[in-house]
Design goal:
heterodimer; A: mainly alpha; 2 domains; 9 helices; globular; B: mainly alpha; flat
Chain lengths: ~170, ~200
């Protein structure tokens, strides 16, 4: 996949990310499902890296770019995030109109709700890609409960899962 | 373009870059933490912006479809020091955290062939599935709570619709966002009851 097309995908995903919740779903959809240049394990690793690394979680796009096309790919992702963020200055010009126009408010609420639906769909797609053993289901269920109903940090959830994997693998290896 | 607002203090561009670099590096777990940090640095400690101006950058960045934290850094920088300030703040937020993200990606790519890592990643994948569902569930609950009356059902319907369009019908994800935006314009109008975006 050439870097320019990759850049275009990153721009599209950043513009429509609505705070970040739709970004991973769009990247997985376009690069994984539709073009087949991003494997599921690499996508999940990028998602986890986005959570582990400091900064906005949208930076997971850099890891995706790196896995698809090396350093050039990561650079395309960073450029896209940056270029897309600058036109927000145009909103300063029309701020008074924006806060009054109901259409903008309704459209943003609709897009935000849709982006949340995409996040749930992404969870569904990842669940289909995971190995179907009871242990993996238990890990997924525990992660869901911890994130949905408690304030446990994401780092602990991912670290705990990695630890379970390590113990299970080493235990069975004996 | 709005004129940079008068502020009590005028930080150097380097100071802005470093401050937002720090905000990025300290904000584990994404946007919400970054917002709390930036409010402290920009309003309380730095006194670069009034609370009202800060609230305006918050509100405008929420309307913006891109990454909110990054958009807010652009707006804050512009209000403090014009276009150069916008560049300094957003680059500061982006460059240092990007280096950390990239370092992790490169390390993972070097390890993924290792069978032990592959096994551990299976469990991380399972956790990511649960985590993504959990995050979606929490966001959906918050979005519904922000609405009133019919707006709650409309929001729920759009969330379920977004899920079904991508997850079950495999419609292009970017298209789904646009479709729900347009649907929101009509449905929330029909449902009445004004409520600001979350």
């Amino acid at each position: 996949m050439d870097l320019l097309s990759l850049f275009v995908v990153f721009v599209k995903a950043s513009i429509l990310s609505f705070g970040g919740s739709a970004l991973p779903a769009i990247l997985h959809n376009e690069l994984g499902r539709e073009r087949g240049v991003l494997s599921d394990p690499d996508f999940v690793a990028a998602l986890a890296i986005g959570q582990i690394a400091p900064g906005p979680n949208g930076l997971m796009a850099l890891a995706v770019g790196y896995f698809v096309a090396g350093l050039g790919g990561a650079l395309m992702a960073a450029l896209a995030l940056y270029v897309v963020s600058l036109p927000v200055l145009l909103l300063l010009r029309v701020q008074d109109a924006l806060t009054r126009v109901a259409v903008v408010n309704r459209g943003v609420r609709g897009a935000q709700a849709g982006a949340i639906g995409l996040t749930l769909a992404l969870g569904y797609v990842i669940a289909q890609a995971m190995p179907g053993t009871p242990l993996h289901f238990a890990v997924a269920a525990a992660a869901f409960v911890l994130i949905a109903f408690t304030h446990v940090d994401v780092l602990w959830v991912l670290g705990g899962a990695a630890l379970v994997g390590l113990v299970a693998h080493l235990g069975w290896g004996l | 373009m709005a004129e940079p607002t008068a502020t009590t203090r005028r930080p150097s561009l380097l100071r802005l870059f470093l401050t937002f670099g720090k905000i990025g590096l300290l904000s584990f777990g994404g946007g919400q933490t970054a917002i709390v940090f930036s409010e402290q640095e920009v309003v309380e400690r730095g006194k670069w912006l009034s609370a009202e101006d800060y609230d305006l950058t918050y509100a405008l960045s929420r309307i913006y479809p891109g990454i909110h934290v990054l958009a807010q850094a652009v707006l804050i920088g512009h209000m403090v020091r014009g276009l150069a300030g916008a560049l300094a703040c957003s680059l500061g937020l982006l460059v240092l955290s990007s280096a950390a993200t990239l370092a992790l990606a490169v390390s993972y790519a070097g390890l993924r062939a290792n069978p032990l890592i592959a096994n551990v990643m299976d469990d991380v994948l399972a956790a990511t599935a649960g985590l993504t569902f959990g995050l979606g569930f929490r966001l959906a609950r918050e979005a519904v709570h922000h609405e009133r009356d019919a707006g709650r059902w409309i929001t729920l319907a759009l969330v379920v619709g977004g899920f079904a369009l991508l997850g079950l019908l495999r419609v292009n994800a970017a298209l789904v966002v646009l479709v729900t935006a347009v649907a929101g314009v009509f449905l929330y109008r029909l449902g009445g009851g004004a409520r600001g975006p979350a």
